[in-house]
Design a protein that fits this description.
The chain is an alpha+beta fold. Helices cover 26% and strands 23% of the residues.
Length: 164
């Protein structure tokens, strides 16, 4: 079972092609996602940009970067290291607090992005390096299915039943 908690762990070393962006706002994300998809398509040794692996990378990248922009402090730097068997995502910002994960919250209220990234990742964590926090995830190209994915417990409350 994967842990939804993001614990302190250094960004693992990785080798491969490195793609990096400085991200100023959430409005920059559509163009950056297109660039990431184009780069995935350009390298014949990586999964096709429309494959399930590429979709997981793009979704996880978007979640980590948008979290840094919304909850962190700029500047935000995003990096993807692509190797034949793994994508290492490393997103850094200037807020040095642990990334919060939603626990005991109804998923309808959002905040499930880090749980989703954790479910896709072979490993994940955050690391403080100087005055920057790095939130990272290593996504295998061929993920092993998790028979028991971890999702936060939804807070159950009684709601009136509406009969139409």
């Amino acid at each position: 079972m994967l842990s939804p908690h993001w614990t302190s762990a250094p960004v693992p070393p990785a080798s491969g092609e490195v793609w990096a962006w400085d991200v100023g706002s959430v409005a920059d994300l559509p163009a950056i996602r297109r660039q990431l998809r184009t780069r995935l398509n350009a390298d014949g040794g990586l999964p096709d940009a429309n494959s399930a692996a590429a979709e997981r990378v793009i979704l996880a990248f978007d979640e980590l970067v948008s979290n840094a922009l919304r909850h962190g402090r700029g500047p935000v730097h995003a990096q993807v290291t692509a190797s034949a068997d793994c994508f290492l995502l490393d997103v850094s910002d200037a807020a040095v607090d642990q990334p919060p994960t939603a626990v005991d919250r109804d998923p309808a209220y959002g905040g499930m992005g880090l749980h989703l990234v954790a479910a896709y990742a072979g490993s994940h964590g955050f690391h403080l390096r100087g005055v920057r926090k790095h939130v990272w995830a290593a996504l295998p190209v061929e993920p092993q299915p998790d028979p028991d994915p971890v999702l936060p417990r939804a807070r159950l409350r009684k709601t009136p039943r509406l009969d139409y």
